[in-house]
Design a protein that fits this description.
The protein is built from ten helices and twelve strands. It is of the alpha+beta class. The strands form two sheets. A ten-stranded mixed sheet has the order 7-6-3-4-5-10-1-2-9-8, with helices on both faces. It has a two-stranded antiparallel ribbon with strand order 11-12. α9 (255-264) runs antiparallel to α10. The longest helix has 17 residues, at 37-53. The structure holds zinc ion.
């Protein structure tokens, strides 16, 4: 089943929900970065949360979520943008993808232990003007709770966030999540109903593993509230790196350093940290960059 995210709002417009299945996205991240099971769960949750928040982007806007914790996993980054009006491109990486911890007392991936304490930062870059930056202290390091804390503290929107990655020895079985947000004007009884629904809801990955669609996840998280569909998105792993960007970075080294590299290195390589794509330049190509510097 292909990944997808749906958005919906309640009839009076005070409750919004984004729900989605990101199994293929997390599998692709796992494959590219050789993520351990614990790192797959951590980065998979973060990329899923970022993809769900990505449904609020327009045009060429970008959203990135960075987690800097003091746990063994180090930092995590997930970054999303729209590939077109109905396709969300997501990428991400973990600083230490090999770190793996035993399951926690509840038999789940110990994402909180792997992430530790620290900060979660959300940056939204607009087409014009200054980017928006919101920072919160990590509450549990489990990432779903932390993203909810960010939405509550930074955006002042009461929110329920559920993110999950289900994996077994054969790999990633299911991944997905739900974000329910109460906008200004939402009444107290509706909020109570949503909180009760969140407490009763099966874990999203269990629902997906049982055949639930993104729309089913949205319905389960809103507990029978009358919601109308708003958006329907595809999701895929997509990077924004390019050979041109690598060349621009190399030009920054300056003429002398590039000449040294061209003279000494049989091949100059750059590997994108987000997608692991490898760019290689021959000494002649490096000298071509030196000529470009001369022309400027
Ligand atoms: Zn890349």
């Amino acid at each position: 089943m292909p990944d997808s995210i749906v958005t919906a709002t309640s009839k009076d417009g005070t409750i919004s929900v984004a729900a989605g299945i990101t199994t293929n996205l997390v599998r692709e991240a796992q494959r590219r970065h050789s993520l351990s099971p614990t790192a797959s769960a951590a980065l998979g949750r973060l990329m899923t949360g970022a993809a769900l928040l990505g449904t609020s982007l327009k045009g060429r806007e970008r959203l990135s979520v960075q987690v800097a914790g003091d746990g063994p996993l180090g930092s995590l980054v997930a970054d999303v943008s729209l590939k077109d009006a109905t396709l969300i491109g997501a990428r991400g990486y973990a600083a230490r993808p090999e770190v793996d911890l035993p399951l926690n007392d509840s038999g789940k991936f110990d994402v909180g232990g792997a992430v530790g304490r620290g900060r979660l930062q959300v940056t939204v870059s607009y087409e014009v003007g200054q980017p928006y930056v919101g920072i919160v202290e990590l509450e549990s390091g489990e990432l779903g709770d932390d993203l909810a804390a960010y939405l509550v503290k930074s955006q002042q929107i009461p929110s329920v966030v559920a993110l999950g990655v289900l994996a077994d020895r054969s790999g990633i079985r299911a991944a997905g999540g739900v974000i329910v947000q109460a906008l200004p004007g939402a009444d107290e009884r509706t909020l109570e109903r949503l909180e009760a629904a969140a407490a009763l809801m099966l874990p999203v990955t269990e629902q997906i593993d049982g055949g639930a669609t993104a729309a089913d996840l949205a319905a389960a998280a809103t507990a029978g509230l009358d919601i109308s569909p708003r958006g329907d998105y595809g999701v895929r792993f997509a990077c924004r790196c390019s050979r041109e960007k690598v060349e621009i970075a190399l030009l920054g080294l300056g003429r002398e350093e590039l000449e040294r590299i061209a003279g000494e290195e049989p091949e100059t390589e750059a590997i994108c940290e987000f997608c692991k794509h490898r760019y290689a330049l021959t000494p002649d190509e490096v000298l071509g960059l030196v000529r470009r510097l001369g022309a400027e």
